[in-house]
Design brief:
Largest sheet: 7 strands, parallel
CATH superfamily: NAD(P)-binding Rossmann-like Domain
Number of domains: 1
Mean pLDDT: 96
Radius of gyration: 19 Å
Structural class: alpha/beta
Helix content: 25-40%
Distance between the termini: 25 Å
CATH topology: Rossmann fold
Bound molecules: nicotinamide-adenine-dinucleotide
CATH class: Alpha Beta
């Protein structure tokens, strides 16, 4: 078991997905980004499905070049049928034999890191996606691409919450373009392989997933807040603090992702997230104060050089498509999710970013 994750969360996910997951029995899956925040959950979930649910195990090969995996990702768990290969997916990957699912979750996801590695961010979403699509196409495997809610850019308020049909408002130049635009091209590649070759592709657009297992040096907002709380430092809120997000607890997110992987309609994109509350960063700090029942100081500061400014003002998903087509139903509300995350981070984080 990955020591950075919560056993109870892994069991919760397996309980919720155990019916549809029967389709995994006896199959083979390739998972990219297997040592990242989401990938590490997938490795544990597949192992737990094998031990608790499936008559015949699913065999999983997880790839990662460990570029942003951190110390958590570098500790590779030992599982019978879930194995790890160090590989950069911007290079082709040869696979002989059966392949039923390709889950392409490799990416450079944290704004701090895509500011540091803009070309690698672009390459993994474009060249990496193409290599993985070719592999899926050659094996007639189902293909799932982890895109992002960032493909919607900075939406006009009339389009919030965003439906999958919203075309977005994205800049092709600027500090976020390497991520937003390359994820858009990744989606276009999925569209091309689906319409031209008939590859069964799906695109997932996750909306701000958080939970135990996030690296302290991830620099996305919640690990950032949690680390500063642990270190007894005031929270840093960038910009004005009025920018809004919704937050999706990891168990709800992974259940949604697995429903897309198992049951997504070929060629379709799905928003996966928790639609409410849409909360500003200032209100998020106050909410945490209420949960911890103690005064939390915060400073509203300019964007640091290490973090890309130009961020979306509002972001919230419309998840009716996943609800209707996949019976996706988030269950963990914000207070409960924050409580689980903050108890975990208090035990694991050092307070020294
Ligand atoms: N977590 C979220 O809230 C969220 C939101 C939107 C989109 N996504 C997308 O979902 C995917 C997984 O997100 P995450 O939070 O686990 O990110 P993460 O950064 O924690 O993990 C991504 C993993 O991909 C690996 N990687 C990067 N480039 C690679 C390459 N060229 N070859 C092989 N491995 C490579 C990294 O080393 C890392 O372990 C990413 O594609 C991300 O863009 C995540």
């Amino acid at each position: 078991m990955d020591e950075f994750l919560l056993n109870s969360d892994i069991d919760e996910i397996v309980d919720r997905i155990s019916g549809p997951a029967q389709d995994f029995a006896g199959k083979t899956a390739l998972l990219t980004g297997g040592r990242g925040f989401l990938g590490r959950y997938f490795m544990e979930i597949f192992d737990r499905l094998n031990s608790r649910v499936l008559d015949k195990p699913i065999r999983v090969v997880a790839l990662d070049n460990l570029i942003t995996a951190g110390k958590e990702g570098a500790e590779i768990p030992k599982h019978d049928n879930v194995t790890f290969v160090r590989h950069d997916v911007t290079q082709p990957f040869a696979w002989q034999g059966r392949l039923d699912y390709v889950i392409h979750a490799a990416g450079i996801a944290s704004p701090f890191y895509y500011r540091a590695y803009p070309l690698e961010t672009l390459e993994v979403a474009v060249t990496g996606t193409r290599h993985m699509l070719e592999l899926a196409d050659g094996h007639k495997a189902r293909f799932t691409f982890f895109s992002s809610s960032e493909i919607y850019g900075d939406p006009d308020s009339r389009h919030v919450p965003m439906q999958e049909s919203y075309r977005g408002n994205v800049s092709c130049q600027g500090p976020r373009a390497c991520y937003d635009e390359s994820k858009r091209v990744g989606e276009t590649l999925c569209y091309i392989f689906h319409t031209k070759n008939g590859t069964a592709t799906n695109t997932i657009r996750p909306f701000n997933v958080y939970g135990p297992g996030m690296q302290e040096t991830d620099y996305r907002v919640l690990p950032n807040f949690a680390s500063r709380i642990k270190g007894g430092q005031p929270l840093h809120i960038y910009g004005g603090g009025n920018q809004t997000r919704t937050f999706c607890y990891i168990t709800d997110a992974i259940v949604g992702f697995l429903l897309v992987i198992l049951k997504g309609v070929a060629g379709e994109a799905y928003n996966i997230g928790t639609p409410t509350p849409e909360i500003s960063m200032l209100d998020l700090a106050r909410r945490i104060e209420g949960i911890l029942d103690k005064k939390i100081a915060y400073d509203v500061i300019e964007y640091p050089d290490s973090y890309p400014a130009d961020e979306p003002n509002r972001r919230a998903p419309d998840i009716r498509k996943a609800q209707l087509q996949l019976q996706y139903a988030p269950e963990v509300d914000l207070d409960e999710g924050l409580r689980r995350f903050l108890i975990w981070s208090d035990g694991v984080y050092t307070g020294e970013q």
